[in-house]
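Hi all, long-time lurker, first post. I run a small reading group and we've been trying to get comfortable going from sequence to structure in the token notation. Rather than ask abstract questions, I figured I'd post a concrete chain and ask someone more experienced to write out its structure so we can walk through it together at our next meeting. Sequence below, copied exactly:
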Amino acid sequence: MYPTTLASVLLYASTSVAIVIGSAKNFGACAGQTVTSTGNTVVIGSVGTSPGTSITGFPPGIATSLNSGNVAAANCIADISTAYRACKAAIVTQVLTGQPLDGKVLTPGTYSYATTAALNAGKTLTFDALGLSTAQFAIQVGTKLDLFSNSKIVLTRGAKACNVFFCSGTSVVIGANAGVNATVIAYTSISAADAITNKGGLFGINGAVTMINDKITSCA
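-- Answer (accepted) --
Happy to help. Here is the structure in token form:
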């Protein structure tokens, strides 16, 4: 049963902080140093690096455009860094430290993990927008985020992938065949295993984004 109380809506309205990704909406993957693809990755959106310049695996991977150390990539990193700070600064609705994300139904707001967070293999995490078309969700992770193999993120009642934000203080690891519907931001790096899907983009601010036969769609 989904929580639908007026109190939930009012709490979100009183504590929400707008997170805006700016030009990063055009990117499916962007990193501070390197972006690497193995196999037939498809990025519906741009791929970029800045200040680093290494982009490998395209082709055979496919992307709308490649931006190696150029102005567009620099703007992407600047804008996603601003979004990361906004995510980290958002007023916390609920502390979830020590709890798995498995089976949770989260309403609009900000959720905090002091250290690591995980969605375990084959488990589902649901974001319920309560019918609010502009509802945002922020998951603050102090250190590492794991989205294990075959895990799924489900959106319901108006929730939008591009309004769901994971901001990890270190790295993010996404397991094979995971279905991710979120903007995933790591302070350092993101590693995506074989055949993951994501609507929302993968961003490694100071390190790398690596992909294997994945399908990533930007927010543009």
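A couple of things your group might point at:
The mean pLDDT is 94.
The first helix runs from residue 6 to 15.
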